[in-house]
Amino acid sequence: MSVLKDKYQNEVVKALKASGKYPSVMDIPRLSKVVVNMGVNTMVDRDMLKAVADDLAKITGQRPAITHATKSISNFKLREGMPIGAKVTLRGERMYEFLERLIHATLPRIRDFRGIPAKAFDGRGNYTLGLKEQSLFPEIEADKVKRVQGMDITIVTTAKTDADAKELLKLLGMPFANA
Q1: What domain range includes position 45?
Q2: What is the pTM assigned to this prediction?
Q3: Residue 79 included in any domain
């Protein structure tokens, strides 16, 4: 069992229940899934898409799905059906392991890190975080990166409000900025 999952079950649930905001144990917010998305912003060649997919597979431990454009945009030289990136949806044990590596290994490697912004909630209890390069993850060797690629990480919770989701993530150890 993941250390973060164990922390959720033994500490976070007790702390949230003690707050008195949740009448039932089933009302206590929990993590549903984590979606990691890497979009490619240039004309996609097969080698670049394969490199992005390989990096994403190393980071998450799961094979990514290739995403395709849903409509054509002539200004971007984009045609419907063209591959434009890769994404992975993590649930269960892999989700907790990924979040543990993100919180304890990846985020501290960001230069001049002062915490993640607390305003990136969507109004429904989900949090989205953007990273500028994939080499922040310890699984990626910086020497072998062909092109620096950013990614979006969306943490989906069962919380009904942003305040509840923020409290959940803070108790799990997410380092929010003091702003």
Answers
A1: 3-172
A2: 0.87
A3: yes
